[in-house]
Amino acid sequence: MEVREGGPEVGDRLPLRPDAAVEEASREKGRGVESGREGVDESRFGRAESPHACHLSTNGTPPRTRRQGERGWTTLSPSPCMMSMGVRERSLLRLVPKVDDLLRRPEIAPLLDAHPRAFVLDAITAALERLRREIREGKLDGETIRSRVEEGIGLEVVGEVGRAARRGLRRVVNATGVVLHTGLGRAPLAPEAARAAAEALAGYCLLEVDAETGRRGKREAFLADLLVRLLGAEAATVVNNNAGATLLALAALAEGTEVIVSRGELVEIGGAFRMPDVMRRSGCDLVEVGTTNRTYLEDYRRALGERTGALLKVHRSNFRIEGFVHEVEIEDLAALGREKGIPVIHDLGSGLVFGTGLEALGGEPLVRPSVQSGADLVTFSGDKLFGGPQAGVIVGRSPAVERVRAHPLFRALRLDKGTLAALETTVRIHLAGEDAARERIPVLRMLSAPIGDLDRRARSMADRLAGLRLEGVAVAVEEDVSRAGSGSAPEMPIPTRVVTLRVRDPGPDAFLAWLREHDPPVFARIREDRVVLDPRTLLPGDEEIVADAVANAAKRGGEESRWRSDGRRD
Questions:
Q1: Is the peptide bond prior to 506 cis by the omega test (within 30 degrees of 0)?
Q2: Strand positions, DSSP E, 285-408
Q3: Cβ pair 291, 264 in contact under 8 A
Q4: Which of the two ends of the chain, N or C, has the fewest CB atoms closer than 10 A to its terminal CB?
C-alpha cells in the first residue's frame, strides 16, 4: 500500500499488498496459484492501475476493498488495516467534548458575563477544531486527549477570548520617547479636552443650533471664531485631517487648472499617500518647478500660464534637505500670487503655534507668520504639534475659506461633535497663552520638559525598579535622545535621560514583547541590546504601570530560565 505524507484522505484509492492481488488474479484465471507472482503482470500494481483498491469511507462506515474485473468494480470485504485506522480515529474523536459541555465549565462560564457570547463560541469552536485536526493527523493518543480536554482546552478558550477582547482600541503606556507616535495615536489630549469630548458624545449638544435664536447654524462656527482670534486669520474652518484639508483647498480653488509646486516639496506622507496623487484627485494638473535641492522665485514666475490656478508650498515636515539648498519663503510666494492674482496655498503640516521652549524642534515654522504672509489658505494638522484631536485646520482669507465651505467635498470631510468639542477646548488652552499651553497640553509639556526634570524622573524610576530586586535584569540611567515623531521636526534629536534594562535571559526582544502583553500594554524600545524606557512620554501615573510590567516580565524571564536549566539537567 502506498503511504503518502499526512496519511490517506477520504476518497483515496489505495492498492492492496501485491501478494493478495496475485492470489486474486490467479483465481480469476483459474490457474489455482495460491501464492507467488507467476503469471502476473506486476506493472498492474501501480497506484493508478491496481486491480484491487480500497476507499476510505465518507459516511463513517469501515473502509471496504474494491476489485476491478471485466464487468467493472466489485466491493469486497473491508481492508483490515484501513478498518483499524478508521475505527481508532473515530474512537479518539468521540473524546472531543461538545460545545454545550464546555460552556458549563467553571473556567469558561464566567466569560459569558464579561464578553460577547459570539467571542466565547468562536474561541470554543477554534479550540475544538484544533483538537480534531491534531487527532486526524495522528499526533494525539487517548491519554493526551483526555488530559487536554480536562485541563488544557479551558485555558485555550480563556486565552483566545482574552486576545479577542484586547484587539480593539485601548489605552497603552508610551515609554518609547517618541512624543507623536503615529502607531500609538499621536497627540494625547489635554484632560479637559478629553472631558469635553466625552460630555459632547454622551448626550445632546449645541452642534448646529444657536441657543439664543433657536435657528440652525454652522457646526464649526464658534470654533472658527476661536481660530481666527488665535491665529490672526480672516476666516477659518476645519475638516477631518490635513490631507483632507489640502485636497479640499486644491479642489475648491484650482480644480481643472494647473498648480505650480517646487519639485523638492513633492512629499510622501504616511501610508504611501503622495502629494502628486492628492493633487490629481483634486482635479488639478501638477506643474513641477526647480530641482530637488534648489528652487527660486523665478522658477515659479517662468511657469505661470493661462491655465495656472494656484501656487502651492508644502512644508517638508517629515524629511530635511541640507547642504547646497534654496527654497522660496512663503512671504515671497504670497507676494507673487498677489501680483498675478493667483491664489497661494500653504500646507504647513505640523501646526506649531508657540515656539518658546521648543527650540529643540529646530526652527519648525509657526502658523501665525504663515497666515500673516498673505497666503490665501494655510492648512495644518490638529493632532501633531497643535496637541489636539485628529483634524485638518484651514485658515486664511475669507473669500478662499468660503469657497472651501461651499465645495461638495466639505460635507464628506466634516468633523463629528466629539472631535469639535476636543479641538475647541484645545484652542481655548492656546488662547490662555504660551505658559498655559506648555503646562496643560501634554505634547507641548513633553517636548519642552527640562533635562533636569527628566533626569530626576529617570533616577526615581530606576530606584524603584532596583528596589524590586528584578531577577536577571540590570537597571541603569543613561543619556539618550527623544523624537518628536509623526513627521514633525525630522532628524532633530531631543536630549533626554532614560532607564535602561540589560536583560540576561531571554533577551531584549522577548522582554519587550512581554511588556506589550501587560494590561495596559507598555511600549518601549531597544538600543544596543538594552530595553530603553524614556520618561519624557509617560503621563501622570504611568511610572507605576511601567514598574509593574517590568516586574512581571522579569519574573517570567526568571521562570523560563529555570525551566530551561532544569530541562538541561534532566
A1: yes
A2: 285-289, 308-314, 344-349, 377-381, 392-396
A3: yes
A4: C
Q: Tell me which residue has cell 525630522.
A: 490
Q: Is the four-CA dihedral 201, 207, 213, 215 of positive or negative sign?
A: negative
Residue ranges, comma separated, of all CATH 3.90.1150.110 domains in the chain are: 451-569
C-alpha cell of residue 53: 483498491
Give CA separation, 99 vs 125, 225, 261, 269, in Å. Answer: 7, 60, 63, 48
For residues 344-368, b (16+ Cβ closer than 10 Å) or e, as one string?
bbbbbbbbbbbeebbebbeebbbbb
Higher pLDDT: 563 or 154? It is 154
Share of the chain above pLDDT 90, in %: 58
With CA atoms as reference, report the closest residue to 333 among 261, 243, 242, 398. Answer: 261
Q: Is 465 exposed, middle or buried (0-12, 13-18, 19+ CB in 10 A)?
A: buried
| Residue in 387, 388, 392 with CA at minimum distance from that of residue 422 | 388
Is the domain 218-414+430-440 a CATH 3.40.640.10 member? yes
**Model pLDDT for residues 312-322, shown as the tens digit of each residue:** 999 876 566 66
Least confident of 175-184, 275-284, 319-328, 422-431: 319-328
Domain with CATH 3.40.640.10 in the chain: 218-414+430-440
- Number of residues that make up the chain: 570
Cα–Cα distance for residue pair 282/265, rounded to 1 Å: 17
In the chain, the amino acid numbered 549 is: A
CB 157 within 8 A of CB 124: yes
Beta bridge partners, 67, equal 52, 74
**CATH of the domain spanning 451-569:** 3.90.1150.110
CB-based burial, 251-280: b 16+ in 10 Å, e otherwise = bbbbeebbbbbbebbbbebeeeeebeebbe
Output the CA torsion sign for 354, 358, 359, 361: negative
Rounded CA separation 223/475 (Å): 48
Q: Is 390 within 8 Å of 186 (Cβ atoms)?
A: yes
**Residue from 528, 489, 550 nearest 316 by CA:** 489
Q: For residues 185 and 183, give the distance between their C-alpha atoms in angstroms, rounded to a whole number.
A: 6
Per-residue pLDDT for 488 more than 70? no
pLDDT tens readout for residues 247-280: 999 999 999 999 999 988 887 766 556 778 888 8
- Pairwise CA distance, residues 14 & 35, whole Å: 21
Determine the Cα–Cα distance for residues 438 and 336; give it in Å rounded to an integer.
Answer: 36
* Residue 420 near residue 237, CB atoms below 8 Å: no
CA 228, 230, 235 angle in degrees (round to 5)? 10
Per the CB < 8 A criterion, the answer to whether 437 and 396 are in contact is no
Q: Which residue has the cell 473524546?
A: 95
